[in-house]
Design goal:
This protein has 18 helices and 19 strands. With about 575 residues, the chain is α+β, with helices and mostly antiparallel strands. The strands form 6 sheets. Strands 2-9-6-7-4 form a 5-stranded mixed beta sheet, with helices on one face. Strands 12-18-16-17-14 form a 5-stranded mixed beta sheet. Helix 2 (about 15-30) packs parallel to helix 18 (about 515-560), helix 8 packs antiparallel against helix 9 (about 275-285) and helix 11 (about 295-310) runs antiparallel to helix 18 (about 515-560). The longest helix has about 45 residues, at about 230-270.
């Protein structure tokens, strides 16, 4: 059942990862390879291990440890296969954690003995450590010298349950526990056993500020011990199936990359269209592969961005020669601003240089023209607090909303949340921007945009745009900024604190349609984005169903009985 459904499991969300977990679970429960009644039973292995342990204690090679509790039936989590035996990990080998030599003693570091930390358990076999220690550290600092073939497990923090086999004689810090298996337990089988137990170790380590397990918790863990010959068969089978998982994962990654390239090529042809006729021709290519292209959320995201690009290029709705051209709209806006300047209500803005033909990103449809934000309305940065930012007088009593870049970034179109409020004094050092203002972030998460859902202040890390009355609609400019985000990000310096400035935004060229067409564009884009949202919802529901079916399949495979030959 497992092999016949590999492709289905691999294509389910998180399928390959879940498949790897299933393989390990089946392996350590005796359900991955048949049992052979001719194998020496594990009960004999346990007898020899006990004798080996006693001999090592007598020879003073290991210390006598506190006897482990008898195994209770409640600790046995599955039906034990023939010839297997329940055992605690502490009875299968010699376990011990490491230590960290004093950092103040330089004689302890830089020797020839590898010293592994938990973060270095990154492969099945490890040999090279970041640091080494000396014989003096080994002698003075209670370090355990682990042998080739010893199995290591990480016990602290995010690395809990990571496991490796040593390929060299080495020691570890206190965050790593090592096991020298007794004869009768192969290192390779113990490695896959510890991998299968990783979710359990993580669960028993949770709950504290620093998640961790201990040597005591590890050695008390109950496992099913198979015969030695069967251990070898299980390891071989697991390695085969893990290679198959690697191939399925690589295939999935390749298919995802090829799919993304196909989507980019076909949708790129749409945005490269110069005329509605070319767009219609290119759209036919996309339409013929619609189901194939839009079978994953990333493709729908790409389609939505393509819709926005087509909108600001004048290719999303037809032009109407009867529409008043955008140049007339600019004249009305200029007259409106001159009147407000004459009345002393706004300041005269700085003249902008003419737009050279070579600077124009693409050819505009008839009736369109290029413009910049300052030409189209009120445009400026928010005002920062001039007093210390932690001055309580700026915020108490709280009265006036103060949004930050985070609220803009999370808004998804309209800012509706606010977490800070100015007092009257705070407002005096800032200003209130009206509901509907287009906000653009220029620091932190730069080039994010949204409109205000209420009157609000904002700091100088946000730029506001209020379109002139003659313009009216701000939604077109919101979608335009989304299309310009990549270009704006390119202006940001490659520093730890990325930002852009008002001058960069002021120089941004905006393709301005006639006012009537602008309204038609906004309406059409709203409709198409709603279709994209519905398509994402259907894909999400389909993936959820696929994940549930895969989980049910995994459960049914895991519930199978061991096979005996």
């Amino acid at each position: 059942m497992l092999l016949s459904n590999l492709d289905f499991l691999a294509t389910a969300p998180g399928g390959v990862s879940r498949l790897r977990e299933l393989i390990l679970t089946l392996a350590v429960q005796g359900k991955l390879v048949p049992q052979d009644l001719n194998d020496e039973p594990a009960s004999e292995l346990l007898k020899r291990m006990g004798a080996e342990k006693d001999g090592l204690i007598v020879a003073k090679k290991i210390r006598r440890s506190k006897p482990l509790d008898p195994i209770d039936d409640n600790e046995c989590g599955f039906v034990l296969p023939s010839n297997w035996e329940w055992a605690r990990l502490g009875n299968l080998g010699d376990w011990g954690a490491g230590a960290t030599p004093s950092r103040t003693n330089s004689n302890y570091y830089g020797g020839k003995i590898p010293w592994f930390k938990s973060g270095e358990l990154t492969a099945d076999f490890i040999s090279d450590s970041e640091e080494t220690v000396t014989d003096a550290a080994l002698r003075d600092c209670s370090l355990r010298l682990n042998q080739v073939g010893d199995v290591l497990i990480a016990m602290y923090g995010a690395t809990i349950g990571k496991t490796s086999i040593l390929s060299v004689v080495a020691t570890t810090n206190q965050a790593v526990c090592a096991c020298t298996p007794f004869a009768g337990l192969s290192s390779a089988y113990l490695l896959l056993l510890m991998k299968a137990l990783k979710p359990y170790f993580i669960s028993i380590g949770a709950g504290g500020a620093q998640p961790n397990i201990s040597r005591e918790k590890v050695i008390a863990t109950v496992i099913g011990l198979p015969p030695l010959v069967e251990q070898s068969r299980i390891v071989t089978r697991v390695e085969e199936l893990m290679r198959l998982c690697d191939a399925l994962e690589a295939k999935g990654q390749l298919e995802a990359a090829q799919h993304a390239q196909l989507v980019a090529t076909l949708l790129g042809a749409l945005t490269d269209s110069d005329t509605p006729a070319q767009l219609a021709e290119n759209w036919q290519r996309v339409a013929s592969h619609f189901d194939l292209l839009l079978d994953r959320p990333q493709a729908v995201d790409a389609l939505e961005q393509t819709i926005l690009q087509l909108a600001v290029r004048g290719l999303i709705v037809p032009q109407d020669p009867q529409d008043e051209p955008a140049s007339a709209l600019l004249q009305k806006i200029r007259a409106e601003k001159d009147k407000l300047i004459a009345e002393g209500k706004i300041k005269r803005d700085k003249p902008l240089p003419p737009i050279a033909e070579d600077d124009q990103p693409f050819a505009l449809p008839p009736g369109w023209c290029w413009a910049r934000f300052p030409e189209l309305g009120e445009f400026g940065r928010g005002k920062s607090k001039h007093r210390p930012r932690n001055d309580p007088a700026l915020f108490n009593p709280p009265k006036y909303p103060l949004i930050q870049t985070g609220e803009v970034s999370r808004a998804k179109g309209v800012v509706q949340e606010v977490h800070s409020y100015y007092s009257d004094l705070g407002l005096e050092q800032s200003r209130m921007w009206p509901k509907g203002t287009l906000c653009i972030t220029i620091a932190a998460n730069i080039a994010e945009s949204a409109t205000l859902g209420f009157d609000s202040c904002f700091p100088d890390s946000v730029v506001g745009f209020v379109p002139a009355r003659a313009m009216g609609n701000v939604e077109y400019f919101l979608l335009f900024v989304e299309t310009a985000k990549a270009d704006l990000l390119a202006f940001a310096p490659a520093t730890a604190q990325k930002n852009i400035n008002l001058e960069i935004l002021s120089s941004l060229l905006i393709p301005l349609p006639p006012l009537n067409e602008l309204a038609r564009i906004v309406t059409r884009v709203t409709q198409l984005r709603q279709l994209c949202a519905e398509l994402r919802a259907r894909l999400s529901a389909s993936q959820s169903t696929q994940a549930q079916l895969a989980e049910a399949l995994v459960d049914s495979v895991g519930a199978g009985e061991p096979v005996v030959t």
